[in-house]
Amino acid sequence: MHARRLATAAALALATTALVGAAPPPGTAPPPGIRTTAGQPAGSTEVPVERGTARFRVPAALLARLAARGVVPKALGTKGALGPHTAHDGSRTLSLRLSGGAVTNSGGKAGGELRFGAAGLALVHAKAHKTVRLTRFTAELGQGTLSAGTGRGTRITLGSFPRADLRSALDTRTRVLRLKAPVTLSASAAERLNKALATKAFTRGTRLLDVRVTASLDRTADLRTALNLHGRRSPASTKARRCPPGCRRRCPSGRTGGWCGGGRSCSSSPS
């Protein structure tokens, strides 16, 4: 009887050891360059943004409308200093740096968020002695919205933009995400801006900004695995090919035929 009890105890000890050995060791870190969330499906992990830049351009139509009502957009420095124009070079383009964020694959669209630095945009109504400061912009890629801090500890969702297809926006070879989209003003943002500036210059659906973003993703991440992009061909790997015989489409370079992308990159304009 005593021998049987010893044998049973030994078998239980061996089974427990096997189960413990099969489990991952506590505190095991995920692969470098990838952030995981509990319950997140495969291919939907977050890939951090290392660096990047953005160009916020105020459309000419909006500039004209604002000018007619005495409202002037001005660049806002990181320390709160106002520039003479929308940008320091006198143009209507504001250059910002990315301060952080991460990218995911959200149903084939670019997801995650992009956070911009402390610089921003000020809307000045000199006659009414009103100024609205918009800083620390954040683009919610999964929702297609752009928000900004108002300098009073609150944030405002300025508007929405079309979500980008991840496969066409991301070059997996260079690890660069490029986004280009117009931001359309929301009804609530138009109401808040009009009230803050004592004007009626803003309306729902107005094209507020044209945004271009170039973001470099974490160089240590396995992009194809993290973003579920296996089997896709990087845009950079599609080399120029000779157009099909008899091609009369005009290429981006202005030529017809020849080496212009195999007809696929040609526009539909005839020669």
Short description:
The protein is 18% helix and 33% strand. The chain is built from five helices and eleven strands; from the N terminus they run H-E-H-E-E-E-E-E-E-E-H-E-E-H-E-H.
Structural commentary:
With 271 residues, this protein is α+β, with helices and mostly antiparallel strands. The chain is built from five helices and eleven strands; from the N terminus they run αβαβββββββαββαβα. The protein has an eight-stranded antiparallel beta barrel with strand order 1-3-4-6-7-8-10-11. A hairpin with a 4-residue loop joins strand 9 and strand 10. The chain is elongated.
Q: What's the end-to-end separation, in Å?
A: 98 Å
Write down how many β-strands occur, each being a DSSP E stretch of 2 or more residues: 11
Radius of gyration from the alpha-carbon trace, in angstroms: 26 Å
Strand order of the largest sheet: 1-3-4-6-7-8-10-11
Q: What oligomeric state is this?
A: single chain
Largest sheet: 8 strands, antiparallel, barrel
State the helical fraction: 10-25%
Percent in strands? 25-35%
Structural class: alpha+beta
* Overall spatial form: elongated
Low-confidence stretches: 12-29, 36-43, 234-241, 251-271
Number of helices: 5
Output mean pLDDT. 77
Keywords summarizing the entry:
elongated; alpha+beta; 271 residues
Sequence-ordered SSE layout with sheet pairings:
Blueprint: H1 2-22, E1 47-57, H2 60-68, E2 71-76, E3 93-106, E4 109-116, E5 120-125, E6 130-140, E7 145-149, E8 155-160, H3 166-169, E9 170-171, E10 176-185, H4 187-197, E11 207-217, H5 223-226
Antiparallel strand pairs: 1-3, 1-11, 2-5, 3-4, 4-6, 5-6, 6-7, 7-8, 8-10, 9-10, 10-11
